[in-house]
Amino acid sequence: MINLTTLIPPILYIVIIVGSMATFSSLYRKRKAQAAASMEPWFPQSLSRDIYLTLLHLPDTPNPPKIPDSVLRAALLRRATDVIQKAIVIRQSKGPLQALLQKGSVGDDTWSQFLKAEQDIDAEIKEVAEDAMALSNQNQQWAQFIFQSAAEMLTNERLRTKLEEQNVKSQEWSEWWGKRNEKVRSEFLASEGVEEIGQGTSVNPAAVFTGLVEKKAGNVSDEDGVLVEAEVTSPTTPKESKSSNKSTPIATPTSTPSGSVRKKKGRK
What we know:
Elements: H1 8-38, H2 47-56, H3 69-103, H4 108-135, H5 146-192, H6 205-218, H7 222-233, H8 238-247, H9 258-267
Helix pairs in contact: 2-3, 3-4, 3-5
């Protein structure tokens, strides 16, 4: 006959272990759910999603009238554009975030937040595809090319933003270059001693050059002018130059003074 008192301790042990494990798992799940609920979203709240859902769930009453399908399609297309942009950000950020997680630079909370954002984006993509299928006509399946149209819209917006930035930069550079040109011009005129000319007036380069030449000519002394005039007003003809060359004596090294000649005569 089996003694039941010997079976009571192991049964109680098993019940306690199972109960403690169930309690721990339930508490862990509750804490995890609370942490996920209190976790900040990876992306801010989508305005296009709120607008689409507001238009979709408006009551069908005569006042206001029913929202046409074209408006709903436009709102859904805008929502698809935002979803594609978020999906691109998620795809580009996943690799670097994994590397940071392996190095220990990022905590597990950030990684779980990122995974939750990825799941939300996947669910939103499926929801957009289902809504596009519901709004599509019988002859045209709009769900097949809604994301292609949204990608083209996103590319167009990026190109437009870059063009606007380039226009702003070119305008800034043109203003800077105009100020720089005006500064260099004023410094040059000041160094040459010419009065500064007002901006917007037409300048004659020949007049400026003539003024500079006259300014420099006025700085020449009277002695320099006399010397130049003497050199210019006394030209020599070829005949006069020949006669002058003949009349000038040429000193030779053989000419000796009279004293040396007398000494030679005394010796004889």
